[in-house]
Every structure is written in structure tokens, then in C-alpha cells.
Predict the 3D structure of the following.
Amino acid sequence: MSGYSFDFFYVLNGFSRLLQGLIVSLELTAIVVGIGTFSGFVLALATSSRSLFLSVPTRLFVEIFRCTPALIQIVWFFYCLPVLADVFWPPFTMGVIALTLNLTAFNSEAYRAAIQAIPAAQRDASIALGLSRWHQAIHVVFPQVLRIASPVLVSNSISLFQQSSLVAIVSVEDLMYQGKLLAVQTYRPIETFTIVALIYFGLSFPISQLVGRIERYNARLLA
Amino acid sequence: MVSGSRQIPAAPGPASSVADAGGAGSAGQSAEGEDRLPATQPFVEIRNLRKSYARGAIPVLKGVGDTMSKTDRLVILGPSGGGKSTLLRCVMGLETIDSGAITLDGRNYIECLSNGRTFVDRTVQRQVGMVFQHYTLFPHLTVLGNLILAPVKRNGEKKGAAIARAEALLSRFGLISKLKSYPSQLSGGQKQRVAIARALMLEPKLMLFDEVTSALDPELIAEVESMISELAEGGMPMMIVTHDMGFAKNIATKVLFCADGVVMESGDPETFFAAPKIKRTRDFLASILRGTKV
């Protein structure tokens, strides 16, 4: 044993600041997951399109966001976008943009597989019922792929919640950011980061346990 | 006109009002329907239909042409791979075609244009309803949800009105207790009957049935076939692809024998089943009677 003696007193004194940061993290996650769950579907429709004008650029987009670190994406949007596009938005907004695009790319891959799992006969039936392609996508395909892809979507969303900690680097005052401050101020980084980790775990773990239940529910409905 | 109605009396005029068509229709009224549509203008006309897959490498329909009148129930028979289902899918507008045209009630609604593209007139296409071999109910919607989806979303019908129509239709076909069930909770026969009801919600002028009982357990076939027969009694013009010869004999007013992508023989069912003109038809019927596949 290292002989380190834990002392949580100062850290727990600053616990309200961690909670403030947590609220920012949750806001960020909620916005990004809310948008990314739908935009991922739209992107999946585009990447599976027969039109090359649609499928090639959108697939390129997906690969760029899948094959670069989320940290770089956040930093790039925070430092490079203002210079290139002359826009100056608050760090929170930049974080939302970067993470939304990231989650959209990952979710679109989950949706793409789910779309392929829908029997082609349903497309025929939709045409026979005179549904437009838009109505078909929204009322027939989306509700089903949302269920089929939900295990992956939930785990993508949990990952997103973890990755939201990266926005601390561009000074969004989230849980990680407040944790870093507290660690420096209390000289108790081990205690602080342990608690921060426990908060991330405590929120993520129950949700990850939902995945199994969702799978069983869907198996019954879509049988 | 090749043949009029047989056992089942024909419809009075257009069969658009499906919901109350059940008790209507007596033999005397069939003349009126024929007055409106003179023999020179068939209800459905298929002209020189050609269709192939893989850019012409696999021809499926090699110049199919035939007609049906408003009082007809056209049954399409033939060996597997002969183009029966493809023909029906073309009439529904689900397939692109290589040449030819299809007319409904005098309107050209599917046509191969000079640039090779397939033109489909959506407003006419919407007057055609189709039920498929494999269950195509939307699994995430209840029976009611399946029935009202297209009327509400596509036609902008008021939800309340659509629900009332759906309930009337389900009551008529003995499915009202399944209103709130999901497709996964239904038997195969019930699924197909709901699929038929779903198509009827759009009040089609022509119904297409593509082997709707082929995937069913034998004991479930009768309920689906009797529902189709009930529609026939109400005067619904229909095209049916089936392997069930008993059902075909009962319901057909006209039979089309399709093999190798062409119509080999077409005519009234008495002649077709009793005295087929060509050897291919005789072989087919003989093999069906022996219970083997062609």
C-alpha cells in the first residue's frame, strides 16, 4: 500500500460546485442526445441513398467524425472555426456543435444497420398505401429503427456523456471543469477526481443497465 | 367482354364505397355497371408489358397484354417464376417497366416513356390497393394505427373520422376485438385480414392479392379467403395470384395462365379448368392436382 491517507473533507465542502458543473454536463448531454438521435437518422437516410451526390459527401462526413478523436473535434471547433468562419459563439455552443456532429455520425451508423433490417416488403406496402417517402421515413421507418437501434443509441449516448467531459478543455464549466478547479484549490486531486468519476459512473451505470431491458421489450414487439 | 359474373353477383357502379358494399349488389344491377363501361373500354388494360431485372439480363415479363372488366375477378395462375407476382407488382406501380402501359378506368397510369423511364400517375395508383404474401403490417403500430395511418397522414382525414371508419370495417370483418392489438399478437390469418382491411380504408377501385394465403397454415387459409369472397360479393374488382385451385375456381370470372413471362392462355374459368386449350396449361393443372410443383 502507498500509505496515502484519504481526506474528503475539503472536497465535500466544494460539492455544490461539482453539482453546478454536473448540471452543465447534463444540459450539454441532453441537447446533444436530443438532436443527435434524430439527426443520426436523417444522416443514415442520406448515407444509404442511391444518389451519389448525397451518399458520398455524407459518408465522408461520417468517416471524418468517426476517425478523429473527439478531443480534436472540440478543440478544432473552438479554435479554428472562429478564425475560418468568423463566428464567435460561447464555448458551450461550440461544444454542443462539435459533440452533436460527433454523435450524429456514430448514431447514423447504428441507424444504417437498423434500416437494412426492415423488411423490403414494408416499403412495398407503404407505396401501396400511397405514403410519400417522407411519411414512410417518419411514420414507418423511424419508429422501428429507433427501437432496433436503441441499444446502440443508448450506449452511444452514455459514451457521449463521458466525452462531454472533454469540453472542460475549452473552458465550458462542466463537471470535469469544476473538478479540475476544485482539485487545484483543495490540493486533493485524488479525492476530487475519485468523486467526479463516481458521479459519472453513478449516472451512467443505471442507464447502461437499461439496454438489456430495451432489447427484451423490442424483441417482443417486433417479433 | 370475355365473361360476366358467375356465382357472385356484380357490383352496382363504382365499388368505391367499400364500407357499405357488403349487402349491396344484385344480379340485376350488373347491367348498369356494364352500361357505364362499354365493352370497348376495359376497366384494366395491360398492353405489351415487358419487364426485366439486371438491366435486361433476366427477362420476367415478355410482352404481357390482357384486359379485365369492372365486373371481373381476374385470377392469375401459373408456375413459380412465371411472372405472376411481377405482373401484379407492375399493376400496383411497384416496379419499373421496360415497355408497355397499364390503364385503369380509361386512364393511362403506368407507362414506359420514350426515355426508358417508368411514368406512374400517383393519383390513379392510389385507387389500387394491394395485399402481399408476407405480412406487411407495421409492427410498431396497433391494428387501429395500421388502418388509420395512410388515411390520416396521406389523405389528411380527421383522426376521429378515420377511427370510426376503421372500427366499422373491423366490426364487419370480425376483427373489432383486435383493435388495440399489435401485429405480433395476431395469428397469420388475422394479420392478413387486417392487411386487407388496411387496404380497404383507402377505398380502392381495384384490389390486388399476391399469394395472400401462401404463407399461412392450412387451417387459417379459409378465413382469409372468405373475406376476399365477401369483398367479391360486394362487387370489388380484383386481381388474384394464388396457388389454391379450389379458391381460384370459386372466385374467378376470368383466368390468366402466365408462364415463362407470357400469357399462355386467358379466358373464362369453366373452359380453363375443364378444357384447357394448350398442353402447357394441361400439364400445369395435372401437376397441381397431383400435388406437385411445376
Remarks:
- Residues 1-35 of chain B have pLDDT under 50 and may be disordered.
- The interface with chain A takes residues 89, 92-94, 122, 125-126, 128-130, 132, 134-141, 149-150, 153-154, 182, 184, 195, 198-199, 202 of chain B (CB under 8 Å).
- Residues 196 and 228 of chain B are 8 Å apart (CA to CA).
